[in-house]
Amino acid sequence: xxxxxxxxxxxxxxxxxxxxxxxxxxxxxxxxxxxxxxxxxxxxxxxxxxxxxxxxxxxxxxxxxxxxxxxxxxxxxxxxxxxxxxxxxxxxxxxxxxxxxxxxxxxxxxxxxxxxxxxxxxxxxxxxxxxxxxxxxxxxxxxxxxxxxxxxxxxxxxxxxxxxxxxxxxxxxxxxxxxxxxxxxxxxxxxxxxxxxxxxxxxxxxxxxxxxxxxxxxxxxxxxxxxxxxxxxxxxxxxxxxxxxxxxxxxxxxxxxxxxxxxxxxxxxxxxxxxxxxxxxxxxxxxxxxxxxxxxxxxxxxxxxxxxxxxxxxxxxxxxxxxxxxxxxxxxxxxxxxxxxxxxxxxxxxxxxxxxxxxxxxxxxxxxxxxxxxxxxxxxxxxxxxxxxxxxxxxxxxxxxxxxxxxxxxxxxxxxxxxxxxxxxxxxxxxxxxxxxxxxxxxxxxxx
Amino acid sequence: xxxxxxxxxxxxxxxxxxxxxxxxxxxxxxxxxxxxxxxxxxxxxxxxxxxxxxxxxxxxxxxxxxxxxxxxxxxxxxxxxxxxxxxxxxxxxxxxxxxxxxxxxxxxxxxxxxxxxxxxxxxxxxxxxx
Lengths: 448, 130
Prior knowledge:
The complex is a heterodimer of chains A (448) and B (130).
Chain A: H1 8-18, H2 48-60, E1 67-68, H3 81-87, H4 90-93, H5 105-122, E2 126-127, H6 134-149, E3 153-157, H7 162-172, E4 178-182, H8 192-198, E5 203-209, H9 220-229, E6 233-238, E7 255-259, E8 275-279, E9 291-296, E10 302-308, H10 313-316, H11 329-366, E11 372-373, E12 382-386, H12 391-400, E13 403-404, E14 407-408, E15 419-423, H13 430-445
Parallel strand pairs in A: 1-13, 3-4, 3-5, 5-6, 6-7
Antiparallel strand pairs in A: 2-8, 7-8, 9-10, 11-12, 12-15, 14-15
Helix pairs in contact in A: 3-11, 5-11, 6-7, 11-13
Chain B: E1 7-8, E2 13-18, E3 21-26, H1 28-34, E4 37-41, E5 48-49, E6 54-60, E7 64-68, E8 73-78, H2 88-91, E9 100-104, H3 116-127
Antiparallel strand pairs in B: 1-2, 2-3, 3-9, 4-6, 5-8, 6-7, 8-9
């Protein structure tokens, strides 16, 4: 978008042209009581030097030298400077979603490659050009299932990220969708027998996260047959994409909704990230968002087009498949570049490292008296541990030792106090894991 | 151009009645306005359609348009050929590319629709360059 400066005389000229005496008269249709009569209460402008000082001071507040064991939907993975330098090229960084799409061949090619990678990772047949993030992708997958089945109930595992469940509730509050939640068993997996009882001929979709919020892998083939037996659709939600380097993708699902943050996007206080919806080709017309496709031009040369955008809001208005189908083109490009840098073998190795380090961390923690694994199900790079005392107290002590401890699961699940959710990625060394376990041993040895 | 045994709507659907049943499609003018049709969405057999209400959609390369029911009735058949070959709508909109067959709720309703001459006049008016 261009910046168009206007001088006072130009403003006057424009007002004269439309016959308005002053800009305020343009707001006459807004009742007086709702109009702002004084300037906004904003801090005064800073000089260039003051701005630089301000940001230096803010940057100095950043914590450095800490080891973090936090995951729970947002993951600390290694990133390459190659990704940042490529996405900062002006052609990518400043371009808006193309409405005259075919003029932007580079953007379309990048989207096409992203979709291709997402299909390869998830085992699905089509993937869209990206969504806001994993939580909105999961919710949009539910709405998509509702359109496909004509049913208005959804069954959600409580092992789906609690904040994803909140997004689903917020989106659907006024849509007449009924949400039923199903608990988990001692394995940390969704309670399959309760699930079977809860899914009826009125259920549009069942949402299952894998690895789930507790880091535990769900038994997708078994769950899929329970869900499909009632004619409902299975939505697989994935928050940790790196798991797909070693874990079989949920190919039995009808829709896969994934958060791509783990692929080259910084944690960055919660965003911006990129989500994606991948599904079977037969469901493509109810999939929100857009699809880029590869074709040949009149001379037979390879080119890219927007294959499917007809159901987006700028064309279908209120009848669009989604009113929020903004694609995160720049973030998706970063994901695309990161995955290409990693390659197939690189992703496998990365995932294997995560798996091995998480296992090592759990083994170290289990050696501590009073500490035990909370769930018995198989996990990838996150696992829950039960402590003999409050996780928040332990974390406060860890923080003094420059260790950011596990997520207190009790903050989200009242019945799971004293449980901490650890995430161990490739960024954490063996020494750091040993140091963390040793610190916890010391903390627990001290009387409260 | 427009068959004389059909009746037409302002939304560019046609209907051909035979006894208590009728066949419904979209007109040649409609397919021309839409451009290359890539997908047709139709109601299931047994579904009830209501005069003036949307019963399906036609998707072309650049847009998705709604199809409105010219009259009320119950769907007895949907044209299965349109799923694998939606382009039929461009080549034979008044014949092979019929959309649905219905059992009429009220056969008298049809007489309120335009005949071929009236529809021809209606679209000619639209085609007049501004």
